[in-house]
């Protein structure tokens, strides 16, 4: 067990009592992975405001606790690449109305012929296998009560490849396939399955992680783009899909800023899109 796994155990005992009566937020329990920053943190906040009782999962307990304090949700230190950590989460949430599988990211932009396989393994581990582990562990809880909803945060990268995106595009394509297979497998059960596939979202850490901490290269991704999507914009899509009546399944929601027509066609000049 890693240090992070140890932290999971102590965090688990602190939330156990408060989650056995799920639905205290009115709409039931929403588990959000990758909730310590960016889209996950914004989704946790928006879901809490929409009446869900939110459980926030990610590895960095300090950041998670800070987000949980702001949203009123509960923090659970979680590593989706660690089966014990994921199993520990599952024991804490017996009834889950909504899972937002947001933990993920991109590591590297090297061409296929030069890429480091370790970066690719990391992307598959967190984006694909991490999602599969969490879906598998929480499925009994999603099938409890009035049924549940799985929302995966994919990417337009998973729908169309671009140079330098081989690893990330492949991982998000696999996540998209996982999501579609899951919908087929759950047909006849009361569980909705949604993929939200954002284009360019200016979050604090995504590009920084992708470029190995190189701030100048990370900032260049958004240079000149008038109003890339924000984490809050994607969170609004999550709430939209979740708040529809429970017989309405949004299969796939692709969302981009107006300045972006596809993964590589991006206007980098003022558009006057307004507020
Ligand atoms: N930003 C974009 O342009 C964009 C576009 C399309 C899709 N997306 C997708 O949206 C999701 C969120 O991205 P973001 O922009 O919000 O970036 P971000 O701020 O870097 O969010 C990534 C989140 O995943 C968590 N995470 C990473 N590894 C994890 C692990 N092993 N176990 C648990 N949590 C883990 C991180 O928290 P810890 O480090 O604390 O664990 C963090 O909270 C990702 O799946 C990303 O691929 C982003």
Task: Describe this entry's structure for a reader.
With 275 residues, this protein is of the alpha/beta class. It has one domain: Rossmann fold (3-Layer(aba) Sandwich), CATH 3.40.50.720. Helices cover 44% and strands 13% of the residues. It is built from 9 helices and 7 strands. It has helices at 3-19, 38-49, 61-71, 83-92, 117-142, 166-185, 206-210, 215-220, 231-243, and strands at 29-33, 53-58, 74-77, 98-101, 148-153, 191-198, 252-255. The chain has a 7-stranded parallel β-sheet, sandwiched between helices. α1 (3-19) packs parallel to α4 (83-92) and α2 (38-49) runs parallel beside α3 (61-71). It is globular. It starts with a helix and ends in a 20-residue tail after the last strand. Bound molecules: NADP nicotinamide-adenine-dinucleotide phosphate. The site of NADP nicotinamide-adenine-dinucleotide phosphate has 32 residues, from α2, α5 and α7.
Task: Describe the secondary-structure layout.
Elements: H1 3-19, E1 29-33, H2 38-49, E2 53-58, H3 61-71, E3 74-77, H4 83-92, E4 98-101, H5 117-142, E5 148-153, H6 166-185, E6 191-198, H7 206-210, H8 215-220, H9 231-243, E7 252-255
Parallel strand pairs: 1-2, 1-4, 2-3, 4-5, 5-6, 6-7
Helix pairs in contact: 1-4, 2-3, 2-9, 4-5, 5-6
The structure holds NADP nicotinamide-adenine-dinucleotide phosphate.
């Amino acid at each position: 067990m890693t240090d992070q796994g140890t932290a999971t155990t102590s965090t688990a005992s602190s939330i156990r009592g408060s989650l056995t009566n799920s639905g205290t937020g009115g709409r039931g329990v929403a588990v959000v992975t990758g909730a310590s920053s960016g889209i996950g943190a914004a989704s946790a906040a928006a879901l809490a405001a929409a009446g869900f009782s939110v459980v926030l999962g990610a590895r960095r307990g300090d950041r998670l606790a800070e987000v949980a304090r702001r949203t009123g949700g509960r923090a659970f230190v979680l590593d989706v690449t660690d089966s014990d950590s994921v199993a520990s989460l599952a024991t804490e949430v017996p009834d889950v109305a909504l899972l937002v599988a947001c933990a993920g990211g991109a590591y590297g932009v090297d061409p296929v012929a030069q890429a480091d396989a370790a970066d690719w393994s990391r992307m598959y581990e967190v984006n694909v296998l991490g999602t599969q582990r969490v879906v598998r562990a929480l499925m009994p809880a999603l099938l409890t009560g009035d049924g549940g909803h799985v929302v995966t945060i994919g990417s337009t990268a998973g729908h169309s490849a671009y140079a330098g995106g081989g690893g990330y595009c492949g991982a998000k394509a696999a996540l998209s396939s996982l999501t579609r297979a899951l919908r087929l497998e759950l047909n006849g059960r009361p569980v909705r399955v949604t993929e939200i596939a954002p284009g360019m979202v200016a979050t604090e850490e995504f590009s920084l992680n992708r470029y190995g901490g190189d701030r100048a290269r990370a900032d260049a991704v958004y240079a000149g783009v008038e109003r890339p999507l924000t984490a809050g914009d994607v969170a609004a899509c999550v709430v939209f899909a979740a708040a529809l009546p429970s017989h309405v399944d949004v299969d796939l929601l692709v969302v981009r800023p107006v300045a972006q027509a596809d993964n590589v066609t991006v206007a980098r000049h003022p558009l006057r899109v307004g507020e």
